[in-house]
Amino acid sequence: MHTPKAMPALYHRTLARLADRLGLPWLVHRLYRFIVFDRSNGLANPILLIIPQASNRWRRNRAKPYSMNEKVIVLHQYGAPSHYRALEYHVKSNGGRIVYREFTIWKPLRKSLRTLSIRSFIKCILNITNLVHLFFTKNKTVVLGMAPKDERIFFLRHILKRHRIHYHTSWPYWDKGFFPFDNPGKITERQWKLFLERDIASIVCATHECKRTLQLTYHIKAPIYVVGHSINPDYFYPAETISDRKHVKYLYVGCFTENKGIHEIFKIIDNLPKETSEFTFVGKGDLESESVSFCTTRPNCRHIRFVDSEKALGDIYRDHDILLLPTQQIEGFGMVIIEAMGCGVIPVTTDQVGPCEIITNNVNGYIYPKTSFPQNVCCLHDKIMNRKVDIHQTRLHCIRRSKDYHLDQVAKIWMQALSGSSN
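Above: the chain sequence. Below: its structure as tokens.
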């Protein structure tokens, strides 16, 4: 491939700038060898020859280092600011500003128009404006939270190509061949490979297993950091005194879906004595109405609709002894586990990746196989009632472990990820 020597410098720069602005480098590069290249004389169209050079040029533009007092944009599919508490703590502590925006546009926009929700419509306009702004600017710090193999990566790669991208993920099975999006296709696979291996400034993983499978699957040059979620100790703290109850109070907090094992908890409730056990459900989801109906027929069971206040949620935790989390398929981290631990509540979970990295089995919690979860919880209940388990010592271990996830501790790792310092 030969670059035409007679091409004027101004012509060259103008075309490079145009191609760069329109987001054409990847598309033209893919079509280049099959459509444009003239194999008979070894020459190519001079207009397209400069496009790969434009692609290299925008990568160099992102070399500006991160400044602690600048604005950080969290770009994700749907709002989950609780996952970025520590990041927000770090940014605001250093005089910066953090904004949350979503890249999902059309579905929320249609919903806002259908329901005539002015608030949702304004939110959609802000999200669209943000994407347009990112397309025409450069050197912004963007934390992208996106499910693996989402086909919208092609769209976002070209919008964010002149910015510092820190990809945030909790997906633990990059090497297993199954993802939230089924059959992504070769083009999407290729785009994700280019994104992870070329575009990003760093990767922020929620677990060590996530980091390990990413390194096995891709040749990633950017640094990878393991940054768990965090809790605010102002809300999630242990009770000052714990009474010696004659019964055990169990709690479930989360989504009411089949994957979360709601029916497994129903089995536990029906197999434990009503006199020595109490159960509380907190949350919402597809099985919420079923949970409400179930609780109305059991005197030791109650349902509380989703609690949006962290202070109120902390009060609920402190009134219980054990958190049940019988996830059946995938638990990437388990935010409720560290919230419960911070309040001195003992987590009992299935053997999923996220809980296994937080909990030390039989020390600060209990991990059971999902196939025998109800039976093991019933056995644990008997041990607690017969004083064969030192529940007070286990609480202390939970509180000690939760301190690793306090805002100030996790914020230090976010600072390393954004600045690119050694991890």
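Residues 118-135 form the longest helix (18 residues).
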